[in-house]
Design goal:
The chain has helices at about 30-35, 50-55, 60-65, 80-90, 105-110, 120-135, 155-165, 185-195, 210-220, 235-245, 255-290, 295-305, 310-320; strands at about 5-10, 10-15, 15-20, 40-50, 70-75, 95-100, 140-145, 170-175, 200-205, 225. By secondary structure, it is α/β, with parallel strands linked by helices. The protein folds into 2 domains: about 5-245, Aldolase class I (TIM Barrel, Alpha-Beta Barrel); about 255-320, Non-ribosomal Peptide Synthetase Peptidyl Carrier Protein, Chain A (Orthogonal Bundle). The chain has an 8-stranded parallel barrel with strand order 3-4-5-6-7-8-9-10, surrounded by 6 helices. The longest helix is centred in the last third of the chain and has 35 residues, at about 255-290. The chain is globular.
Length: about 325
Amino acid sequence: MKLKKLKIGSVELQNNIIAAPMAGVTDLPYRLILKDMGAGLVTTEMVSAKAILYKNKNNAVILRTEEAERPVAVQLFGADPMIMSAMAERISEPFAIIDVNMGCPVPKIVNNGEGSALMKDPDQAYKVLEMMARVLKKPVTVKFRKGFDDDHINAVEFAKMAESAGVAAITLHARTRQQMYSGKADWDMIRRVKEAVKIPVIGNGDIFEPEDAARMIDETGCDGVALARGIKGNPWLVKRTAALLETGDAGPEPSTEEKKAMILRHTELMIKYKGEHMGILEMRKHLAWYTQGLPGSAKLRGLMNEMSTEEELKRLVDMI
């Protein structure tokens, strides 16, 4: 059976399916849905340690959690060991795991020496991870990439460094920073990293169907899978992946009626936690993802960008 409990440091997850952190996607409303779908671990959107230090008001929304979604991980980014460890300690109370982002490819973060830029500076990365692992009473994990670019492929060495720094698990996005999210993920690199370290290795990249997750586990030996872009508008990927890994049968794709019901439930949660105005604005992109591939979805997308109230959204859902 490929669905199994996964132990990360002192934290035992009910299964080895993880909802990866995604800016603008894995907020509290969607994490609650993903948890209901059976994710073993959900993760917050990425948070800047410096933004916590300077008391950025936006962080309060990102860092809010509910009992129903736990265990939940928080993902921090930064390059200063003192700031990273101190801020992680400051916010750690509701979180089971502190994840460190060393894979983000966004230029403004990379140009600041953070995210995937740290893959070019393993000594600095070690200082950050070692201090966090030493200071924090909760497991520290790290997510990184295959390498910075094709001339700097160092995932195996980076994984060994992270293990020696004291991290409890690693997640590998098997693309370079240069690739961003394009091209094919190099699952063989996940296998090589898994063979190089003793701590759990979670594979990430190109899981869009339940069968992809099963194949990744088979081909790489990874301990768990992190679902990212595949769950945009498709929380059922978590449930169907769990079913496939446990029973060999993923079950049916969601029906149009199930999609409509999920959109309405997601909208209710958005409004509950963000208010109607912001909740509906943010639902526009989710609605586009939910309805992708449905008949008339192109016309719907045009109307979505005009909706601003819950009533308008409900009328739109009736048209699906």
